[in-house]
Amino acid sequence: MSRRWHFRDYQAERRLFKRRVALVSSVICLMLIILIAKLAHLQVVRHEYFSARSDGNRLHVQYVPPQRGLIYDRSGALLADNLPVYNLTVVPEEVGDLNATLKYLASLVKLTPDDIETFQNQLRRSRVPYSSTPLRYVLSEEEKYRVAVNSHRLPGVNMEPQLMRHYPFDDLAAHAVGFVSHINQQELDALNETEFENYGGATHIGKTGVERTYERLLHGQVGYETVEKNNRGRVMRVLERTESIAGRDIGLHLDYRLQMVAEEALGDYRGAVVAIEPETGGILAMVSKPGFDPNLFVTGISNREYSILVDDEINTPMFDRSTSPYPPASTIKPFLGLAGLDLGLVDYEYTILDQGYFNLPGVSYRWNDYTMRTAIGGGHGETDLRKAIYQSCDTFFYDLGYRMGIDAMHNFMSLFGFGANLALDVGYARTGVLPSRSWKMETRGEPWYPGDTVNSSIGQGFMLATPLQLATAASVIANEGRMVRPRMLRSVDGEPWPLREEFPAPDVLLENPDYWRYIRDAMVMVAHRPYSNVFRDYGTAYEAIARADPDMSYQIAGKTGTAQVVGINQNVRSSSEIRVSDLNTDHALFIAFAPAGHPRINPKIALAVFVENGEHGSTVAGPVAKKITDAWLLDILRLDLSIQPEPGGEPTQRSPAEVAAVNE
Question: What is the pTM of this model?
Fold first, then answer.
């Protein structure tokens, strides 16, 4: 086999090598050129874009929530304050294992199952990514130290300072002042675009009462700040800040001292008190008892605590009795009496012979007077309008209401605010029911019957009124027809703040202004008419008010009321004949104003007292009103009431000239 020999061509190999080197060098150079071009593009052309992206990794714009405005009473006492606290918050996006973190935090601070549940509920709501979510409010000093020492083990966990709403008087005026709590999704959806932006970073909003009514004034204006954060998400420094604008401080007509007296006067009863300053319409006290501690809602009330409040079907502490309707009973008689005088249906001399019951023409059914429903029996005998008021004679008003008719009754009673909410800034108050023919047809699908008018004439049947409406109506009599709509707000940032009335309520103008004096005198006799030789001819509240305080330095004009909760057979004459549960006993009511008939001091307070299942307006609600008027006139205002009105004789018709002189 022959072997073939091959000789290496070094020149050819050298040329091949050079070509390969040149190709590789070209590729490398091309890649370097591309790389340099790319770097130039990134560093020069897109410098601003990537610079912003880079800053975005460490610079963050966040909201600065405003400080909420304070709420003061008329004397300058704080009803709603802001306390500095530290809250434990979590940014879930920065936490590796959320469950493990929560378990570890539970070993450092006290975390209840309710805290965990509330935290998880907030996480499920719509929230801004990388925003903090509160886990525990108001850390103690020891808890703050524990979290701070272990902060290196807790990425995404922070202690954030915050001004937290606080109500110094706890449950005092809880329904009137209201409370703030966490904003829910429904409330966020109700905000317009501008309002939504203004609530950036805010966690709370007014839920009830004044806190809700004046939310826009109290909330303030949100601010902004640019901060630098490290890779753990912690703020390292603040680079730029636009300060928030604090909410405005507001002052109320409410007086915490009178509020305390009213709540104490109610004692263990469930009920309500509304007191108004007749001259200004300012609401001096607004009590609904039992109440609740609004501080529970600020930090998120637990399910157990909330269940205690809402499941109490007897006391219903969350239910506002001061703005809810009840049968006004005999408290409407002074207003119906004014209507009778003004319409010419009665005069000062008009009388009836009351035998204790009333019959409609051609009807055998009897509407009994309260004397026929008690062991007293009989009736009031010869009775005029004045006696019908101070003795609360149902029969007189059955007759008057029937002759007046529901149309005239409805029209006249509406002048005093019945059937409407005249309060300027208590928009949540209910309107009650001032029945009419059209109302019954629309709501019941039935025509109006004469018996309905008879029931309405003593504040029963379909008629319903709130304690706020009754106090408003009493203030109109105190002002002799001048209507001043009730209001809570008195000042903003220390300056008087007049409320704009889009629909001013007209004054009540009577044919004869002397009628005001007549009705006032009759209401004074409710509390001050002493015993006489005539059987039962004394005021229904005399025993509990004037006789209980012989040294009383002023006169109070009032009217008792006892509203039936359940119907009782008309043949039952005494309550001892039946057994009525505590929850079905009658409601007790009393309206009043004072001082009444003073020669130089106009009435300073008008009020309505409602005692749920109190049974007797004269013996239960009347003394409550007396304690409140005593406190306001003698202890708070410290009025000199030593000059007393002249003891009056029989009210007489004044001449037009005398009326004009009195008005001047």
Answer: 0.83
Q: How many CA atoms lie within 13 A of 595 on its CB side?
A: 21
**Among 505, 508, 513, which Cα is nearest to 484's?**
505
Q: How far apart (Å, rounded) are the C-alpha atoms in residues 580 and 389?
A: 28
Q: What is the pLDDT of residue 183?
A: 87
Is the Cβ–Cβ distance between 356 and 367 less than 8 Å? no
Confirm whether 330 is a catalytic residue: yes
CA 323 to chain centre: 8
All domains in the chain, ordered by first residue = 60-252 (3.90.1310.10), 256-289+325-663 (3.40.710.10)
Residue 49: predicted pLDDT: 66
- Cα-atom radius of gyration of the chain, to the nearest Å? 37
Question: First CA to last CA across the chain, in angstroms?
Answer: 154
On whether the CB atoms of residues 359 and 353 are closer than 8 A, the answer is: no
Whether 453 contacts 409, CB under 8 Å = yes
Q: Per-residue pLDDT tens for 582-632?
A: 667 899 999 999 999 898 999 999 999 999 998 888 899 999 999 999 999
**b/e 188-217 (16+ beta carbons within 10 angstroms → b):** eeeeeeeeeebbebbbbbbbbbbbbbbbeb
- Map residue 410 onto helix, strand or coil: helix
- pLDDT tens digits, one per residue of 344-390: 999 999 999 999 999 999 888 999 887 755 555 678 889 999 999 99
**Contact predicate 571/377, CB 8 Å:** no
- Asked if residue 249 lies in contact with residue 228, where contact means CB atoms within 8 angstroms, the answer is no
Q: Would you tell me the crossing angle of helices 333-342 and 394-414 to the nearest 10 degrees? A: 80
Residue in the structure block whose two tokens are 């009444």: 596
Tokens of 568: 């009782």
Mean pLDDT value of segment 457-464: 96
Strand partners, 383: 352
Cα gap 543→530, rounded to integer Å: 8
Catalytic residue among 330, 392, 457, 618: 330
Q: Measuring CA to CA, which residue among 509, 561, 518, 507 is closest to residue 332? A: 561
Q: Cβ contacts of residue 414 below 8 Å, gap of 6+? A: 420, 434
